Amino acid sequence: MTDPSFDFRACQQCVCSAVRKASRAITHHYDAELRSSGLRVTQFTLLATLAQTGPMPMTRLAAFLGLERTTLTRNLKPLLRDKLVEPRDEKDGRIRRIAITPRGEAAAREAFPLWKKAQDSVKKLTAAFDIRLSDAR
Predict the structure, then answer these.
(1) Are 38 and 127 in contact (CB under 8 A)?
(2) Positive or negative CA dihedral for 109, 110, 116, 118?
(3) Which tens digits make up the pLDDT trace of 50-76?
(4) What is the topology classification, in CATH, of domain 38-122?
(5) pLDDT at 130
(6) Is the pTM of this model over 0.85?
(7) Torsion 59-64-68-74 (CA) sign
């Protein structure tokens, strides 16, 4: 491509790509710390949220966590399978609440110190990322 109006070298400074790369590295960091608990950080976050809020409709939970509903459904599958959360039907059959179980609360309490270790150490990891928000020309 030789059209001078498209200088794709500017894409080397893409903030979106840099933030996505940083997000993957941070997720990997949390997952590594949580590994011995058997939970991934996405699962821990769901359990911690439900431990704080109590049962919540799926649509509201997805919005609260900033997730697409399909992503929430995918993230809930292993938690439902392992009986860490459970569905609770409402009188209105269109609404399905998700609740943490006593087993889920125990798993979250067990994983909390591992999450805290990741949380306390992630600042060192994020300092390594050079995310430029200025105009790259």
Answers:
(1) no
(2) negative
(3) 999 999 999 999 999 999 999 999 999
(4) Arc Repressor Mutant, subunit A (1.10.10)
(5) 63
(6) no
(7) negative
